[in-house]
Amino acid sequence: MRRVVCPGSFDPVTNGHIDIISRASTLFDEVIVAVGVNQSKARLFTADERLSMLAEVCDGYDNVRIDSFDGLLTDFCRDRGARAIVKGLRAVSDFDYELQMAQMNSSLAAVETVFVPTSPEYSFLASSLVKEVATFGGDVSRLVPPLVLKRLTERLSGRGGAGRPGETG
Ligand code: PNS
């Protein structure tokens, strides 16, 4: 079985992430979407909230499952029996850092990184920008799934539970 890990912070998941997850699901037998839950980083959404939004928006993909990890990504890949990591590349500017991480990861474990070019309509899209635009009342409805838009709106208006409005993470 060809199993791949698609890692990220997903704070929150965007249509750009879904584009990569969906295309990875056609290339591999199983895709594990892995939410990094590094406690030291400030996030708008808790790990549980990020996992639950991903679970809902990936519900239609039979070979995609959602998981979380803390610590090294390569340890997680080893534990789950995954020999590959999939990453989206939005622009050349992503490449330097992504290449460095891919080389570090393959030096730590027998894990290859596969880069998938982001679809052009999402090449500018990042969770941090979505949060910033939404914080100032901009329209992000074309950039995130409806469920995420609802949670973002609630969180930023202070109606959405334990979050921290204004933090961009
Ligand atoms: O969505 P992001 O914030 O770009 O995701 C970054 C993530 C979680 C994929 C990256 O920070 C990561 O892999 N963290 C795990 C820690 C680790 O393995 N570090 C060494 C990478 S070379």
From TrEMBL:
UniProt site positions, description: Transition state stabilizer: H17
Keyword Nucleotidyltransferase: yes
Residues given in the record as ATP binding sites: S9, F10, H17, G88, L89, R90, E98, Y122, S123, F124, L125, A126, S127, S128
Taxonomic superkingdom: Bacteria
Entry GO CC: cytoplasm
Annotated compartments: Cytoplasm
Top class in the EC scheme: transferase
Entry's EC annotation: 2.7.7.3
Pathway: Cofactor biosynthesis; coenzyme A biosynthesis; CoA from (R)-pantothenate: step 4/5
Single GO MF annotation: pantetheine-phosphate adenylyltransferase activity
A GO BP annotation: coenzyme A biosynthetic process
Domain Cytidyltransferase-like: 5-132
PANTHER family named among the record's database cross-references: PHOSPHOPANTETHEINE ADENYLYLTRANSFERASE (PTHR21342:SF1)
Subunit structure: Homohexamer.
Family: Belongs to the bacterial CoaD family.
Protein name (record): Phosphopantetheine adenylyltransferase
Gene name of the encoded protein: coaD
